Please model this.
Amino acid sequence: MNESGKTIKDLTVKELKDLIQVTIKETLEDELEDYIALRSKEYIQSIREAREDYKSGNIKKFDEHFPDV
Model:
């Protein structure tokens, strides 16, 4: 069930079209954001550095950064 308590069979054609449209729009925005990020040399370098830090054990746990959470 979706958030409104309706099932797909209970949706009107317009509601279904709107749901599909919003889903496609959000997906395209996510893909575009990923594409732009991956074209950034600085972003790619930061990923490389993070992977190297992780492999070498040079990491901190979440609770070390945010002890009050």
